[in-house]
Design brief:
single chain, four-stranded antiparallel sheet
């Protein structure tokens, strides 16, 4: 399942923490028309490069669906950054 939300947390050296929840579902809805417009160009590029467009779309879909429950964090003494995808 593609991630529908992200929890972003940032803390600087003075221990001020900034945390925000980002609804990614809105992002997917807003990107849908752009994907529909760019899809023919993507298929033409795949055909020029001798790549199966259906297989390429399947690979991109598998990458998107595997992002669920991913956590990325950078922890340094002067800076902390964390992103958790749901």
């Amino acid at each position: 399942m593609i991630p529908f939300a992200a929890d972003v947390s940032i803390r600087n050296g003075r221990h001020r923490e900034w945390q925000v929840w980002i609804p990614l579902a809105i992002l997917w809805i807003l990107l849908a028309p752009l994907v529909a417009i760019l899809l023919p160009f993507f298929c033409i590029a795949c055909l020029i490069g001798d790549i199966d467009p259906f297989r390429a779309i399947a690979v991109v879909w598998r990458i998107l669906t595997s992002l669920g429950d991913t956590e990325i964090s950078v922890n340094k003494p002067e800076f902390f950054f964390s992103v958790h995808l749901y």
